[in-house]
Each structure stands twice: as structure tokens, then as C-alpha cells.
Amino acid sequence: MAAPDPIISVRGLVTNLGGRLIHDHVDLDVRRGEVIAIVGGSGSGKSVLLRSIVGLMRPASGSIHVFGEDVLAMDNGAMRALQRRWGVLFQDGALFSSQTVAENIQVPLREFTDVPQPLMNEIAAIKLAMVGLEADTAAKYPSELSGGMRKRASLARALALDPEIVFLDEPTAGLDPIAAAAFDALIASLQKSLGLTVFMVTHDLDTLHAIASRVAVLVDRKLKVGTIDAVRADPNPWIQEYFSGPRGRAAIGATR
Ligand SMILES: Nc1ncnc2c1ncn2[C@@H]1O[C@H](COP(=O)(O)OP(=O)(O)OP(=O)(O)O)[C@@H](O)[C@H]1O
């Protein structure tokens, strides 16, 4: 049987920023229903790749297709239609501090739908429960929440429109190991129950081993993509240090 078309397809992506080459002909296919983890050194261009795929940054050349649609060639109307089908959790959570958690979750509903307020309140309550937050969190402000709760609230917002893909930029950064492991478990269970495709930028080796189907490593401005075991075997010095240094060995030890 032929493999289904990838849900995200990047070909020959070249990105130049501030006179620096960030991506040098990067290729990536993401399959429906998988958790793909993007790793790489600080400043290697992981977030820029994510932002390019969701149409927030424009590469110098190459092609990006999501759901078979050409992200770089579409008008605003087509882009809005596409944005309804994915949710994004940005690196810092990016909740609006002057809005309650419920209002934050309702931002995409307000932007993309004309759902009446009572239904929006119900949807916010459902999304809060999905991410494991108490009902009374709805009326709280982001500053009243712990870091882990803020991440969950951001995830609830990313899930507001029942997306097919969620993009997560370093979802466990800044969390203690216990909160990070709980967040990993949440992502894994939502991915399974909702059939989500997860595109995740991470530094976290534990997350990688716990939930990634495949890993894409951004090194020397190129992507190396495969299963964790396949990529770990690559002799590239950064990859060897990342997977086989003390932290890498500890992460493997914890999962085997
Ligand atoms: N809008 C921008 N304009 C100019 N340069 C940028 C812009 N966004 C990112 N960069 C630069 O592009 C490079 C890649 O940034 P990016 O945020 O993708 O790195 P990253 O791999 O996600 O790093 P980290 O793991 O530290 O978050 C960095 O050198 C960054 O300074």
C-alpha cells in the first residue's frame, strides 16, 4: 500500500536572516498522526522552521505544503482557512496577561468563528478539562497560575478550534522534571485520543524519548530525520554529544 501523503511537506527550504544562512535546502515530511520532534542547538533555526511552516516567516526559497496546500502561494483568505486547522503553542505560552484564562482560550474562537458567548464559555470549560485544569482556572489571570498551569492553559487555547495539527515550541521549557513529565503524558494522551499530528520543537531528551515517533535534527543548516535510534547512529559530532553525552544517556536509561 502506498504511504499516505504527508500532512506537512517542506522541500528545499532556504532561510537567510540578518545575512546568515539558517536553513540550507531543508526537506521534511510529517505524517498524519505522528509526533515529530525538532531538535538542534540554540539558534540553529528550529523556531524559525516552525514559524515558516505556519506562515509567520517567509523563507528565501523552497516550498511548504500543509494539508497539500501551498503555504507560500496562498492569499490571506486561504491562510485563515488553513490556520483554523492547526493550533500553536508558542515558546513562552504567549497568553494575554490582561485576559482571564477562559478569555485567552476563546481568542481563536472569536477570531475565526461567530460562536455565541454561552457556547464559547462551554468550549473553554471543555478545553480546560481536557488539559487537566480545574474549572475555576477559567476566571483566573495568567499571573495567578504556575508555569505548568500556564503551559496547559496555552495548550487549551491551541486546542480551541479542534485542530488536526498542533505546533508546540519547547512545551516543557522552564518546567521542573515532574511537571515536564506530566505535560509529556498529557500531550501523548491527547495525541492518541484526538488523533493529533504533533510538530514539536524541544531540547528535552526525556520528552523526545517519551513521546516522539520520529526526530528531525537541525545541524549544519540541514535536517536529519528518522527514528531516534536511526538518528542517534549518525556520526555528526553535535548529534553524538546530544544523544550520547551524560544527559542523553540518562534519558535513555530512564526509558529502557
Ligand atoms: N525575525 C528574525 N529576524 C532576524 N533574525 C532572526 C529572527 N528570528 C530568529 N532569528 C535568528 O535566527 C536564528 C535561529 O533562531 P531560532 O529562534 O529559530 O533558533 P532556535 O533553534 O529555535 O533556538 P533556541 O533553541 O535557542 O530557541 C537565530 O540566530 C536568531 O537570532
Structure described in brief:
This is ABC transporter ATP-binding protein. The protein contains 10 helices and 10 strands.
Defining key terms:
alpha/beta; binds adenosine-5'-triphosphate; 10 strands; 256 residues; four-stranded antiparallel β-sheet; six-stranded mixed β-sheet
Gap between N and C termini: 32 Å
Sequence of secondary-structure elements: EEEHEEHEHHHEHEHEEHHH
How does the helix and strand content classify structurally?
alpha/beta
Number of helices: 10
**In terms of quaternary structure, what is this?**
single chain
Measured by DSSP, the beta-strand proportion falls in 15-25%
Helix content: 25-40%
Q: What characterizes the major β-sheet?
A: 6 strands, mixed
Organism: Rhizomicrobium electricum
InterPro entries: AAA+_ATPase, ABC_transporter-like_ATP-bd, ABC_transporter-like_CS, P-loop_NTPase
Keywords: ATP-binding, Nucleotide-binding, Transport
Domain ABC transporter: 8-244
How would you explain this protein's 3D organization?
- The chain is globular and about 55 Å long.
- It has helices spanning 46-53, 76-83, 101-112, 117-130, 147-158, 177-194, 205-211, 228-232, 237-244, 246-255, and strands at 8-17, 20-30, 35-40, 61-66, 69-70, 86-89, 165-169, 197-201, 214-219, 222-226.
- Strand 9 and strand 10 (222-226) form a beta hairpin.
- With 256 residues, the chain is an alpha/beta fold.
- The mean pLDDT is 90.
- 40% of the residues lie in helices and 23% in strands.
- The protein has a six-stranded mixed β-sheet.
- Helix 3 packs parallel to helix 5 (147-158), helix 4 packs across helix 5 and helix 7 packs parallel to helix 10.
- The two termini are 32 Å apart.
- The chain has a domain at 95-163.
- The protein binds adenosine-5'-triphosphate.
- Residues 17-18, 22, 40, 42-48 line the site of adenosine-5'-triphosphate.
